[in-house]
């Protein structure tokens, strides 16, 4: 290693606008980078090349999630049986995932497509009637909340409160503050405690009802609460990041957008390329359980290691010399937007469905839409890159 001309900087808000030159410099000059600590955290390591991040994501024995997914110490979440799936390592993670995984297969997810499409069409109707507006507020933010609520069986009359708690929890998670009472988690867990009891008497077709039906000997109420928390924290701002980032990329590359307008059958594979370039979860941390020798560096046992999915997804070594460019026909074989291995995102199929349906409806209705990336603001938080707003014109 020769050392990078630039160091690693945790991004937040406006600094999320263009982290990509930093990623490129680290990939080329210092792929196993030791970032300096400051008053709030110790130093931590950063992996930026695809092969290194890919291998680390799959090696849960060496790169553990149990001590938290941020570079700050003490950010794991021990809630006993209610500990969210993302903070578990195998074999506990394997047991939990085996119970809930069948509800998230592509075939199961396809069952909600009609409802997703109806929601998207309704919101695009509103935008059309208004002659444009903030498409994040109107569609990209409420859609994933609608999908999560649908999966969890939140009744329509409770959606307003659910959306409020979701917004609070997503904001708190971005800042690593999910343990604070004001984060919304207390209200959410109280709500789902009541919903579980309702579903014992009045089961529906949702995931909470399915888990309740397994019986408390198999799935305790605490397990169900942990699952609900995982759904809320993992299924909202990430999808907003995909949808907002995709609209910007297609605005900036009209020739690529035209390919999709002319041939909508390309949209499913285009979603993979857009997931690669947007990488809503830009990075997450693990903690090493032993010393790791990698690319000439030794990462000591007990170190925080940031897996930079956003950097790895643009690695020329994996995707070619044009890795930074949008090519809707690329159809990449492997991407890290949902991580890989045991911790591959449970909601990947649902996110892909939302991306596909939004693009199908948006491009069919507004093939020449215009957005304003310069006016777009980014959410605070060091791990998820997503827009807070995006001015949209149907043209």
Low-pLDDT segments: none
Number of helices: 17
Helix-strand makeup class:
alpha+beta
User: What is the string of helix and strand elements?
Assistant: HEEHEHHHEHHHHHHHHHEEEEHHHEE
Strand order of the largest sheet: 1-2-8-5-3
Helix percent reads 40-55%
Mean pLDDT: 89
Task: Report the β-strand fraction as a percent range.
Answer: 5-15%
Q: How far is the N terminus from the C terminus?
A: 50 Å
The Cα radius of gyration reads 21 Å
Task: Report the biggest beta sheet as strand number plus sense, adding barrel if it closes.
Answer: 5 strands, mixed
Q: How many strand units?
A: 10
Q: What's the layout of helices and strands?
A:
Layout: H1 20-29, E1 32-35, E2 44-47, H2 50-58, E3 63-64, H3 92-100, H4 106-110, H5 113-130, E4 133-134, H6 135-140, H7 142-152, H8 159-174, H9 185-201, H10 207-213, H11 221-234, H12 237-252, H13 254-262, H14 267-278, E5 284-288, E6 292-294, E7 297-299, E8 304-307, H15 309-312, H16 316-319, H17 348-365, E9 370-371, E10 391-393
Parallel strand pairs: 2-8
Antiparallel strand pairs: 1-2, 3-5, 4-10, 5-8, 6-7, 9-10
Helix pairs in contact: 5-17, 7-8, 9-10, 9-11, 12-14, 14-17
